[in-house]
Amino acid sequence: MNKAAGIIPARWGSTRFQGKPLYLIAGKPLLLHVWEQCQRAKKLESVIIATDDMRIADAAFHWGAEIALTSGRHQSGTDRIAEVARKAKRFAFIINIQGDEPLVDPRLVDKLVEKLERNPKIDIVTAAHPFSNPKEAASPHQNKVVLDRSGCALYFSRSTIPYSKKGSPVRYLRHQGIYGFRRKMLLQFVKWKPTPLERAESLEQLRALENGVSVHVLVTKHGSPGVDTLEDAVALEQKLARARRSALS
Asked: What is the pLDDT of residues 155-197, one digit of tens each?
């Protein structure tokens, strides 16, 4: 039972971007970009879109996606994928893929699965990469992580970490919101109540650290941009248009 499923939680309601999953970028819904990238991953037995919204479900059905209709009461994407994982007992590994990262790297997805396959001591694995512009680390909208020598997270924060008292060069790591779970750990994770640091930072991954669970972090050279706002979507469309022009020239 070493099969892996990629689950993409998707909801219609968003404070900053209503209807984001079906917003067209380069002629395709945002969620379709994510799903197509995941289809290219070699280590996923299934790619499932988990949603409580029939507009999203209908659209995904028409492009051939596997869909799981979930409760509308979930507070987070992790809760939503856990509902699917609870019934999907044939999967040992669950990869939680953000529905707003249309350029998610299929090779990264495969690396997360491989890490769980090769090291039975790892229950949760995620990813991070250096900021291309270190000044962006100051933004509270960009999540940061610091690691120990074995590659496990010491802490995640919206604040700029680590602090450089003497102004010496520091490598700031941007946490990319993709997670690999052993199924058993995922089901345990959602049973725990939100923890003090999690509530303070509004960062769900701190729940694992506060409950004594190590979170292994794969550090990559580059990450994939997320689409949080309409402005992000416009910027991404412009980036894709430039890439197409470059490929044709």
From this structure: 999 999 998 887 778 899 999 989 999 999 999 999 999 999 9
DSSP state string for the chain: --EEEEEEEE-S--SSSTTGGG-EETTEEHHHHHHHHHHT-SS-SEEEEEES-HHHHHHHHHTT-EEEE--TT-SSHHHHHHHHHHH-TTEEEEEE--TT-TT--HHHHHHHHHHHHH-TT--EEEEEEE-SSGGGGG-TTS-EEEE-TTSBEEEEESS--S--TT------EEEEEEEEEEHHHHHHHTTSPPPHHHHHHT-TTHHHHHTT--EEEEE-S-------SHHHHHHHHHHHHHHHHHHH-
- The whole-angstrom distance between residue 13's C-alpha and the CA centroid of its chain comes to 18
